[in-house]
Write a structure and sequence with these properties.
The chain starts with a helix and ends with a strand. By secondary structure, the protein is mainly beta. The strands form five sheets. Strands 1-21-20-19-15 form a five-stranded antiparallel sheet, with no helix packed on it.
Length: 310
């Protein structure tokens, strides 16, 4: 009976992410203490940045964006935007806020007395201009001003009401060219007749929300690669408990074992994940460098690493 209960508890824990703790599989491999400077040249590109989400802060607070159409490189640090050169050095602070929409354009959402206002910043970002709000016809005005048929129960034909509102929206936007998310709820619609913002749930009542064109920009960190840094083993040493009023789960921590190699030069190390820190190789967006991002206590650091010339 005791065995049954133990198995039941282990099964329950496993379903919540629990892993049975083990021991260091490779005690001969040292914990990470930097890259061997006798083998590699380490160039620190960025410090105190959070380019990746963590278990505590799920969304990255900082971003590096590269727009392939104009070769501009942007850094969002907190609420501020900067223009970078190709070596990640700051060229200038940008007089813009909010969300990057590509093509040197930013959108900033402001809530003012329960009213939403969206400002648009375009190059050279000297001033902001308001984006017009997309207008909709309300149900009462439609049934009052249009001949809407009724069904046998005397209710108005909702499909016909929707068609009228769609025509009204089309007259404002024309042919939709692009949809730009501004935050979790608002979007900017760029059409052949103009540019408007609206709430996504309103727009989605009439049209599918989709990016009609592939974005011209990418974020550093969207693509993780393992060309030079690859994990070859893992062991759980313990479990962090997490939960709220409704669910409880576990996040295992332990050692991840890595090999880092450039050409014929290589090192091995183990990485302790107890503090939720990570080390990741990122795909370079505009060059062919070996980029390594390492979480830190005061934010992450981004390195470019190459072999020592011999």
């Amino acid at each position: 009976m005791k065995t049954f209960f133990l198995l039941a508890i282990l099964s329950l824990y496993s379903s919540c992410g629990y892993e049975i703790p083990g021991k260091d599989k490779h005690p001969e491999i040292p914990e990470f203490n930097g890259f061997d400077k006798d083998l590699f040249v380490i160039d620190t590109l960025l410090t105190e940045v959070q380019l990746m989400g963590t278990e505590v802060q799920l969304m990255a607070t900082d971003k590096v964006a590269y727009d392939s159409t104009d070769k501009f490189i942007y850094l969002r640090k907190g609420d501020e935007w900067f223009l970078l050169d190709k070596d990640f050095k700051i060229k200038q602070k940008i007089n813009a806020k909010g969300y990057f929409g590509g093509n040197k354009t930013f959108y900033d959402k402001i809530e003012d007395k329960n009213k939403t206002i969206i400002y648009k910043y375009t190059y050279p970002w000297e001033k902001a201009e308001k984006v017009k709000e997309l207008q909709y016809l309300d149900h009462d005005s439609i049934v009052k001003n249009y001949a809407i048929p009724k069904d046998e129960n005397g209710a108005y034909d909702l499909e016909e009401v929707t068609k009228i509102n769609k025509r009204y929206i089309d007259n404002q936007l024309g042919v939709i060219e692009k949809i730009i998310p501004v935050d979790f709820h608002s979007i900017v619609c760029i059409g052949s007749k103009g540019e408007y913002f609206t709430e996504d749930y309103k727009y989605n009542h009439y049209y599918e929300i989709e990016d009609t064109k592939t974005t011209s920009y990418s974020y550093l960190g969207d693509d993780k690669i393992n060309d030079n840094l690859y994990e070859f083993d893992w062991v759980a040493l313990g479990n962090h408990g997490r939960g709220n009023h409704f669910v409880f789960w576990f996040i295992p921590y332990g050692y991840r074992y890595y090999t880092f190699k450039i050409g014929n030069d290589s090192i091995q190390f183990k990485w302790n994940t107890k503090s939720s820190r990570r080390i990741i190789q990122l795909k370079d967006l505009w060059d062919d460098r070996v980029l390594i991002y390492k979480d830190g206590e005061n934010g992450g650091e981004l390195y470019s690493i190459s072999s020592m010339k011999k």
